[in-house]
């Protein structure tokens, strides 16, 4: 299971003294980009290829709070992937002291930065996606041609 341990920082807090909802989205994106970099796709490679991940939908579920300077362990798994690889559902789970605190599930795709449309990712990136640990509820997503 891919995971990173982060900190709930000052800028992550809201008026109620716990981690704000958009901080979960920010930390999810950070862990995803760390994962892609570890798979051989750092930001420079995405820029060279002129492609990038684009989120179409986020869903956040909350179970426990994080407070200032708490350690935040964030995992990454694949909850869905289309056969052509253009669309994927990625899941980040947030743990506090080993207990599930929140879950972010995002529906995303690979965007051609020039044409501004979804594309099939390069073979190496698609292979990395397919090798990602699958969530318990993993599902094959419809190809983008079937959703247009």
TrEMBL record:
Ordered alphabetically, the record's keywords are:
Hydrolase
Q: Superkingdom of the source?
A: Bacteria
Q: Which CDD domains match?
A: 4HBT
InterPro entries given in the database record: HotDog_dom_sf (IPR029069)
Name any one Pfam family assigned in the record.
Answer: 4HBT_2
* Example GO molecular function: hydrolase activity
Q: Which parts of the chain are coiled coil?
A: none
SUPFAM superfamilies membership? Thioesterase/thiol ester dehydrase-isomerase
Q: What is this protein called?
A: Acyl-CoA thioester hydrolase
């Amino acid at each position: 299971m891919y995971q990173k341990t982060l900190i709930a920082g000052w800028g992550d807090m809201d008026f109620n003294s716990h981690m704000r909802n958009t901080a979960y989205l920010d930390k999810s994106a950070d862990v995803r980009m760390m994962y892609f970099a570890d798979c051989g796709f750092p930001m420079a490679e995405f820029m060279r290829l002129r492609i990038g991940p684009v989120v179409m939908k986020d869903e956040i579920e909350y179970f426990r709070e994080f407070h200032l300077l708490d350690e935040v362990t964030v995992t990454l798994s694949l909850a869905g992937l289309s056969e052509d690889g253009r669309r994927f559902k990625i899941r980040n789970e947030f743990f506090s002291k080993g207990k599930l605190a929140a879950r972010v599930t995002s529906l995303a795709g690979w965007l051609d930065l020039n044409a501004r449309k979804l594309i099939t990712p390069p073979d190496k990136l698609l292979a990395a996606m397919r090798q990602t640990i699958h969530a318990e509820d993993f599902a094959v997503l419809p190809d983008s041609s079937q959703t247009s």
